[in-house]
Amino acid sequence: MILLSPAKVNLFLKVLRKRRDGYHEIQTLFERIRLFDELEFSPAPSGIRVESDVKSLPEGPKNLAYQAAWLLKEELGIQKGIRIRIRKRIPVSAGLGGGSSNAATVLLGLNRLWNLGLSKRRLLFLAARLGSDVPFFVLETPFALGEGRGEILRVLDHPGFAFWHCIVKPRFGLSTKAMYDSLTPSSLTPLKVNVKMLFRSLQEGDSKRLSKFLINSLEGVHHKRVAAISKIKRELLAQGALAGLMSGSGSAVFGLFRSQEAAERAARFFKTKRPQWQVFAVSTF
Known about the structure:
It contains nine helices and ten strands. By secondary structure, the chain is of the alpha+beta class. The two termini are about 20 Å apart. The model has no long low-confidence stretch (mean pLDDT about 90).
């Protein structure tokens, strides 16, 4: 069995406060996008084996896909084994949710492959134990508002059109933990976004209005990389983006464009100027 594992961008990310449990209270808008890893599932006599075509990716218990398979086996007492082959296209350490998506795809895939019959509610509960972004991918929806640490989700109506982005991933990556650990009180934004206005922007497909919501509390945290992130945003704007933003904890930056043609034109510009970088023109999925 082969399944696609999609990426995401955060159209906005506000870090509201640090919680007593060490996590941060956030408000974010997830958008699922047409950029995919591919996961191939094969039966095995016992155990869990995860392989990848990216050398830097852990293949044992530190891999979220492995953890997802282990959690299902542990919770349900499953003796069957599984081999999972990950073909990576989503950049690593980019803020695009590749690892979280892989974990969600394992939960969904093994639920089907092993005929477990787990409800969406049960899968979401398990997903939240694996990571803050994993539940969004389990929902299998284009847009969701995330609160709490990101695991409390509200599905947003999707009228059927797609937003277009040019995504630019520079050669350096950023650690999610390091980014959140670097937050200072001045970085926090206790005011929540106007959700009604946000919903209206989505429902009407108003890219221009939506662009006004683009904010990321983590964007200025990594002082050594602020200049590089800012430069990519300026170049995206120069190529016609309505707005540019770092996705999640970075280092990928995306531009919001009016059309597929405009996003693809910007992608060609970056691919020519920065051939070592990973660049994609993608839409809502």
